[in-house]
Design a protein that fits this description.
The chain folds into 2 domains: 2-235, no CATH class; 246-377, Immunoglobulin-like. Helices cover 9% and strands 34% of the residues. The protein has 4 helices and 22 strands. The chain has helices at residues 2-13, 79-83, 124-136, 291-294; strands at 37-44, 54-63, 75-78, 86-87, 162-168, 185-194, 197-200, 211-214, 226-235, 246-251, 254-255, 267-269, 283-289, 297-302, 308-310, 313-319, 323-325, 328-333, 337-338, 344-347, 353-363, 368-377. It has a 6-stranded mixed sheet, with no helix packed on it. Strands 11-10-13-20-17 form a 5-stranded antiparallel sheet, with no helix packed on it. Strands 3, 4, 6 and 9 form a 4-stranded antiparallel sheet that branches. Strand 14 (297-302) and strand 15 form a beta hairpin.
Length: 378
């Protein structure tokens, strides 16, 4: 029952997308501006992994409520580390990851999530569900290890807000799937990020997450403090895909490489206190995307006359202060080709202080890469 509750709750409350461009903080604010806890991207070392391959999962988050003077402790949990890797769920739907597991004999007990259980345990039926989940899904270790590709230089990544884990794709993920038109396998990794204390909520009401995030006084935290989502991996025998490659990140043509860890490399811009924001100076943010290593053919896509098409690619921009114009920009069109004019226009805020900027590049087959930088508004 526990897993059915989790499935229903995820379906109703999870902030997820097949191509994750950022989630958290349900509001009508500008989605490019980070005000609370946000998961901005999830990258797989192999977007189309092979059977038996080890895949490094890397998650990028930022907490808009943290400051240098008052940082919040953010806990990121990969549920595959706790419950196992979700493989070939019915209908390929992530919320079916835990379906069809009711009615088994008790045994094994709940997986040790390390989360406090205020009720002191789970009912027998829920223990049975957990036991069968352990039997039917490959439980994986939880090492937070680095397995980056050589071009992903640490100059672009602040490890304070990147979390990693490894999973292993089952060697029979394709053959154990129900036959279809094309043989493939599908795996999901679910995750959550909490700016407090995560706890199990075993008696959660319908539509409410059975995982919660609480402050030190036991008050449950909201959407700006708790994010849950997933990333998916398709497995083919005859296809591969590489992540996009970004060589630099420019702010008004100056490189931001290293700016998150070396104050001497930070760009300075004046604040703008104009009430009419159209009168403020405009600045340019632009990732330098390596076309030769990013522009790939999409073997599953064909034009009406049967010609192979290229991958689609785009970039999402995120900032912690100021304003962005055109925060989502096209990088590559399947038919029209490469678009070099993928920069975003940035306007500095009226308040001085540090600003983080991010560019997350996606392709339409699960590839992700990001760069980040720091600027100072004087």
């Amino acid at each position: 029952m526990f897993f059915r509750k989790l499935a229903r709750s995820l379906a109703l409350a999870a902030c997820v997308a097949l191509v994750l461009s950022g989630c958290g903080g349900a509001s009508f604010d500008d989605p490019s501006k980070i005000k609370g806890l946000r998961v901005l991207a999830v990258q797989k070392s192999s977007p189309y992994p092979k059977q038996g391959e080890q895949v490094n999962i890397k998650l990028l988050f930022w907490d808009g409520k943290s400051t240098d003077e008052s940082p919040r402790n953010i806990l990121v949990l990969f549920l595959s580390d706790l419950l196992g890797l979700c493989v070939n769920p019915p209908g390929d739907l992530y919320f079916n990851c835990f379906s069809g597991r009711d009615g088994g004999a008790p045994g094994g007990g709940m997986p040790d999530t390390g989360l406090p259980d205020p009720d002191g345990g789970m009912p027998d039926a829920e223990v049975a569900d957990a036991s069968r989940a352990r039997e039917n899904t490959s439980l994986l270790p939880s090492p937070f290890v680095t397995a980056t590709r050589p071009h992903e230089a640490s100059l672009f990544q602040d490890p304070a807000h990147v979390r990693q884990t490894n999973i292993v794709i089952p060697g029979d993920i394709i053959t154990k799937r129900a036959p279809g038109i094309e043989p493939y396998g599908l795996a999901y990794v679910l995750f959550m990020a909490c700016a407090g204390i995560p706890r199990l909520v075993p008696n959660a009401a319908p539509g409410k997450l059975p995982f919660g995030c609480f402050d030190a006084d036991g008050r449950e935290l909201g959407a700006d403090d708790f994010v849950i989502g997933y990333t998916s991996m398709y497995v083919f025998d005859d296809r591969s895909n590489q992540n996009p490659v970004v060589d630099d990140f420019l702010f008004d043509s100056a490189s931001l490489a290293g700016s998150t860890i070396d104050e001497t490399l930070v760009s300075h811009v004046p604040s703008c206190k104009e009430s009419d924001r159209t009168k403020c100076p405009k600045h340019t943010l632009k990732p330098v995307i390596n076309k030769a290593l990013t522009d790939e053919e999409d073997p599953s896509a064909r034009s009406p006359d049967g010609q192979p098409l290229r991958e689609q690619a785009w970039v999402n921009y995120y900032i912690t202060a100021g304003e962005l114009k055109s925060s989502v920009r096209l990088v590559n069109d399947a038919t029209q080709g490469w678009n070099e004019k993928n920069e975003a226009e940035y306007t500095a805020p009226a308040e001085p202080g540090p600003v983080r900027v991010f560019a997350v590049v996606h392709d339409n087959r699960g590839g992700v890469a990001w760069v980040e930088g720091k600027i100072i508004v004087d």
